[in-house]
Amino acid sequence: MTPLTTHQNQPTLPRQRQAPDTPGAPAPAPHPTGTPAAPPYTHTPDAPPTNTPTTPALTAAALTLMTPTTPPPLTTTVPRQYVHRASHAEVFLTSGTRLTENHFHLTAQWPRTHTFFTTHPTHHDPLQAAETIRQAGLYLAHTQFNVPLDHHFLLWELNITTHPHPTPHTTTHPRQHPTELTLNATTPHTTHKGKRLTEFTMHITIHQDHHLTATGSGRFTCITPRTYKRLRPHTTPPPTTRPTNPHLIPPTHTGRNHPTDTVLTTTPHPHTYLLTPDPHHPILFEHTTDHYPGILLLEAAHQAHTHHTTTHTHNNTGNNNSGNTTGNTTGNSNKNNNGNRNHNESPHTTTLNTTFHHYAEYHTPLHIHITPHTTPHPTTTHTHTITGTQNNTTIFTTTHTTTPTQPTT
Predict the structure, then answer these.
(1) Which of 210, 180, 206, 161 shows the shortest CA–CA distance to 111?
(2) 3-class secondary structure for the chain?
(3) How confident is the model over 345-370, as a mean pLDDT?
(4) What's the CA gap between 68 and 66, in Å, rounded?
(5) Cα separation, 242 vs 276, whole angstroms
(6) Which long-range contacts (CB under 8 A, 24 or more apart) does 173-179 make?
(7) Distance CA 367, CA 273 (A)
(8) How high is the pLDDT of residue 101?
């Protein structure tokens, strides 16, 4: 197996310093023609002098004690530049190995707790899996397909299906260690322009302790800085403050833990939200971009879906006013109950399929629309389509399929 690296030619090691010639000492014999010299830093033990008595044979026990133990393999996160992260703490990949021309084995680690991605008793945050798949695609492009670090990537499609863990963690048996993951990735379709990779599709499976945790796929386009500047000659810097809006959805209705994590405000129109994120959020705006990041759009769709399902369930059992998204969501109507339902009883996303059509610009309001669909099993699964639009132009479309969270015992 060939380790993943962008540097095919390793630097030449310096030659070992030779001792000065001693007067009268014979010159070293030249190497015979066709016989290569020993590589630098190669150590060959000298033969014992003939007049030195040989050492008695050591016992098997002594040999066992003297044999050095093999050190455990050491791992670290991959360079953050390969996955386009500014913080080392947000790099999830730890290693990668090429198995065949288009088949790769990678490892990753998710922390016990994360400041933004929430870990439930039976499953991880699906957006954490989405971020891991995104990092895997960028890492393979840079390290294996030799895409320069200054190139830009367009993510056109991202599909994820998550699977609950068979041994859930509870309050009496919490998650004690980071989650160690193994990833198998394939790139069945690649497009080149000359020797340069221009587009590729990646399929990936994520396992934890031989249990299938998630499957996914993505489609990427790689473009040069010159092409990117031609595509986007005029851009707007990100906003510096979040506008004050009394209809900001509380975190208990979005599946998050802090008001700064909420990215949506309600509007007078049913099933429609306005994107109003905190531009200083350490995860959603982890590094500077000239457009709304893709992970933010996925989070907006996730929060719209969570808010819609929690308020719809509450209103159906209460005042039956599910059509008004501005109802009592910003007040204190069953706030604690909805918060508990959000983590223990509400459905969680198991499958999301997203297509990105255009860049989401900073200077134009972006609206999020959610549409529920009738499913064959309405009591077990729910499907919603969430669409982001700017100036009546579709920016992205994602479909969320959810199943009820099983109570842990």
Answers:
(1) 180
(2) CEECCCCCCCCCCCCCCCCCCCCCCCCCCCCCCCCCCCCCCCCCCCCCCCCCCCCCCCCHHHHHHHCCCCCCCCCCCCCHHHHCCCCHHHCCEEEEEEEECCEEEEEEEECCCCCCCCCCCCCCCHHHHHHHHHHHHHHHHHHCCCCCCCCEEEEEEEEEEECCCCCCCCCCCCCCCCEEEEEEEEEEEEEEECCEEEEEEEEEEEEECCEEEEEEEEEEEEECHHHHHHHCCCCCCCCCCCCCCCCECCHHHCCCCCHHHCCEEECCCCCEEEECCCCCCCCCCCCCCCCCCHHHHHHHHHHHHHHHHHHHHHHHHCCCCCCCCCCCCCCCCCHHHHHHHHHHCCEEEEEEEEEECCCCCCCCCCEEEEEEECCCCCCCCEEEEEEEEECCEEEEEEEEEEEECCCCC
(3) 89
(4) 6
(5) 7
(6) 175/112, 175/119, 176/112, 177/112, 178/109, 178/110, 178/111, 178/112, 179/109, 179/110, 179/111, 179/112, 179/124, 179/208
(7) 6
(8) 94
CA 400 remoteness from chain centre: 19
The more confidently predicted of residues 131 and 10 is 131
405, 347 contact by CB (below 8 A)? yes
Q: Decide if 208 contacts 179 (C-beta within 8 A).
A: yes
Q: What is the pTM of this model?
A: 0.73
One-letter amino acid at 375 equals: T
Contacts of residue 371, defined as CB under 8 A and 6 or more positions apart, other chains included, come to: 271, 384, 385, 386, 387
**Distance of alpha carbon 156 from alpha carbon 134, whole angstroms:** 11
pLDDT at 2: 45
Task: Report yes or no: 82 and 64 within 8 Å, Cβ to Cβ.
Answer: no
Residue type at 72 in one-letter notation: P
**Under 8 Å CB-to-CB from 40, ≥6 apart: which residues?**
13, 14, 15, 16
Summarize pLDDT for 145-185 with one digit per residue, the tens: 999 999 999 999 999 998 876 655 544 444 567 889 999 99
For residue 23 the two structure tokens come to 């007067």
Phi, psi of 315 (to 5 degrees): -70, -35
Q: State the CB neighbour count (10 A cutoff) for residue 141.
A: 22
Which tokens go with 166?
A: 């068979």
